[in-house]
Amino acid sequence: MRSIYFALLFVLMACIGCQWKLNLSGEDGRSDGVVLARFDRAQRLFLTTGDYAALQQMKTNYPIETRTLIEDVLNLGYVDEPGINTRFLYFFQDSTLQALLLDVEEQYHDVSDLNADLTKSFKRLVEMVPQLSIPHVYTQISSLDQSIVVGDSMVGISLDKYLGKDYPIYLKYGFSERQRRMMTRQYIVPDCLGFYLLGHFPMSEEERDSAALRDAHMARIQYVVNRAMGRNVFNRPEVMRVSDRMQHHPEITIQQLLEE
Fold first, then answer.
1. Is 20:38 a contact under the CB 8 Å cutoff?
2. Alpha carbon separation from 238 to 125, 193, 212, 243, 245 (Å, rounded)
3. pLDDT in single tens digits along all 260 residues of the chain
4. Burial of residue 239 (number of CB atoms within 10 Å: 0-12, 13-18, 19+)
5. Alpha carbon distances (Å) from 145 to 18, 75, 97, 107, 177
6. Euclidean distance between the first and final Cα of the chain, in Å?
7. H helices within the chain, ranges in order?
8. For the sheet containing 148-150, what is the strand order?
9. d(Cα 59, Cα 110) in Å, to the nearest integer?
10. What span, in angstroms and rounded, lies between the C-alpha atoms of 157 and 164?
11. What angle do helix axes 95-107 and 39-49 make, rounded to 10 degrees?
């Protein structure tokens, strides 16, 4: 194996020909909120069939997502260099990876609940922080060392990082109990919001160099995530202190809080 952590992909072999376009999208025709773009399905189609027509469709329908996955997440090389397609295909050819692939497809065949939560939460977020816009959100399968990939207006969710706290492969490869508690479906939307906020309100150099300041910055981010979610996902004492402060100082806007 290239690494002890791999991403896995799965697709039903019956999905061929004109059915591909029907099965690659998670969209249901709605235009009023977030609808996850199912890039992971396009991945699975190529990586389980080896059909280069499927690869071409993946690159055509998801050019930015494909480039980000191959170049920045998996670090396989440049998307246009010779041999990269074969390298990408071979990266996922492993029996252990195929077992994980099946579980990803099984758990995330239906993502309607995620669509609904993402829509509500991002709408609340942009109301609180008008400078933000609702991003393009897509699903992918990547190596297990990344959960969320963020661009200026895009958020990628690595479904292989959200298979449950007791998932055997997480236990096998040494993820701590603290890590595994957050590797569940219920943390997908909070993680999307949190990483998106961090992309727009990053830590300063001073904050990166200080554990206390880093923690304070994350507490502010998590407080805003709680507000956007409409519930307290994060209940750390540091987050509760931010909540108390905001209750006692209603003149402070969310924008001002994030810009501190």
1. no
2. 21, 18, 10, 9, 11
3. 333 333 332 222 223 232 333 334 444 434 467 899 999 999 888 888 889 899 999 999 999 999 999 999 999 999 999 999 999 998 888 777 777 778 889 999 999 999 999 999 999 999 999 999 999 999 998 878 789 999 878 999 999 999 999 999 999 989 999 999 999 999 999 999 999 999 999 998 888 899 999 999 999 999 999 999 999 999 999 999 999 999 999 999 999 999 98
4. buried
5. 34, 12, 15, 20, 16
6. 44
7. 19-23, 39-49, 52-61, 63-67, 84-91, 95-107, 112-128, 168-172, 177-181, 188-200, 205-208, 211-229, 237-248, 254-259
8. 136-140, 154-158, 148-150
9. 24
10. 15
11. 150
Two tokens at 191?
A: 């993680």
Q: At what angle do helices 211-229 and 237-248 cross, to 10 degrees?
A: 70
Distance CA(214)–CA(52), nearest Å, equals 45
Sorted by sequence, the CB contacts under 8 Å of residue 153 that are 6+ apart come out as 133, 135, 136
Distance (Å, whole) CA 60 – CA 47: 16
Q: Which two tokens stand for residue 241?
A: 């202190």
AA letter at 130: P
| Phi and psi, residue 154, nearest 5° | -135, 145
Angle at 94 between CA 92 and CA 97, to 5 degrees: 75
pTM: 0.84
